[in-house]
Amino acid sequence: MSKPSSVCPVCGRKITEYKHSINKTLVECLARLNAMGGRARLDKMSLDNTHFNNFQKLRYFGLAIPTNDNYEWQITDRGVWFLQGRVQIHKSVITRNAQVIRESTELVFINQIKDCVTYKIEWQDQARQPNLFDK
């Protein structure tokens, strides 16, 4: 869902806001990254097109971040805690030019994401495995 676009008065580029909601696909992406030790290249993760094309949205929720090393992504502490059911995240965000400009006031735990309750225990077990953030 997007809002009406506007045009940059300087460069003439179309500026559009987009709403992104946390969903089963994004949780599956996060769980796969966590299962790979918390850091991996997207091309090594055996993602289908849907997961590959949506993976980058994890950063809008603070769950994973890209590294400067060959297209690798790294799960954040918040991402691990979300998988464990320990923290809530914003249900949706609004972005403009790939930057979060607003967050929903509604917060959700992983077990509140549609179709994710069945897999929550499995993701919690994976999230408890030692990773690069453990000290």
Could you walk me through the main structural features you see in this protein, from its secondary elements to its overall organization?
There is one protein chain. It contains 4 helices and 10 strands. 22% of the residues are buried. The strands form 4 sheets. Strands 3-8-9 form a 3-stranded antiparallel beta sheet, with no helix packed on it. The protein is α+β, with helices and mostly antiparallel strands. Helices cover 24% and strands 24% of the residues. It starts with 5 loop residues before the first strand and ends in an 8-residue tail after the last helix. The protein has one domain. The chain has helices at residues 24-35, 49-54, 77-83, 120-127; strands at 6-7, 14-15, 17-21, 39-41, 64-66, 72-75, 89-90, 92-96, 99-103, 107-108. It is globular. The model has no long low-confidence stretch (mean pLDDT 85).
